[in-house]
Design brief:
Helix content is 11%, strand content 39%. The chain is built from two helices and nine strands. The radius of gyration is 18 Å and the shape is elongated. The chain folds into two domains: 38 residues, no CATH class; 75 residues, Roll (Ubiquitin-like (UB roll)), CATH 3.10.20.90. The chain has 127 residues and is mainly beta. The strands form three sheets. The chain has a five-stranded mixed β-sheet with strand order 6-5-9-7-8, with helices on one face. About 10% of the residues have low confidence. It comes from Eutrema salsugineum. GO terms for molecular function: mRNA binding. Keywords: Isopeptide bond. This is Ubiquitin-like domain-containing protein. InterPro entries: Ubiquitin-like_dom (IPR000626), Ubiquitin-like_domsf (IPR029071), Ubiquitin_ubiquitin-like (IPR050158).
């Protein structure tokens, strides 16, 4: 699909993107700047990215636990909350675990919003 971007100085940029794209990184020439566009519904755009929401983290051995997070937090931030949780000492090596959402392994540098993780979503913690 093709999307069109109009810059603040009125310049139009047309991009051909994959229909399955969630995030597009575009580097603008001149002083190094990066613009990240998020494709989504109006509801996604209207939601407050800084608002706290509850998510669940499920483990096979220990059950399910809830955490308060913001959509802008990275997966690494969420893993830090898990490592500092009350049940973390039970885990042999919490750093050796990965988070899964909708069958995908989550990358530490990406945010919850990147994966469209919303309130009351459940992530799975696997060794």
């Amino acid at each position: 699909m093709e999307i069109s971007i109009t810059t603040v100085n009125g310049k139009n940029i047309n991009l051909e993107v994959d229909d399955s794209s969630n995030t597009i990184d575009l580097k603008i020439h001149g002083p190094t700047r990066q613009l990240v566009l998020r494709l989504g519904t109006e509801q996604d755009l209207d939601s407050d990215p800084k608002a706290s929401m509850q998510i669940y983290v499920s483990t096979f051995e220990l059950g399910t636990f809830n955490f308060m997070v913001e959509r802008t937090e990275t997966i690494e931030d969420v893993m830090a909350k898990i490592r500092h949780g009350e049940w973390a000492p039970i885990l042999v090596d919490p750093k050796a675990f990965m988070l899964i959402f909708q069958g995908k392994e989550l990358e530490n540098r990406r945010t919850l919003a990147d994966y469209r993780i919303k309130k009351d979503s459940t992530l799975v913690l696997l060794p």
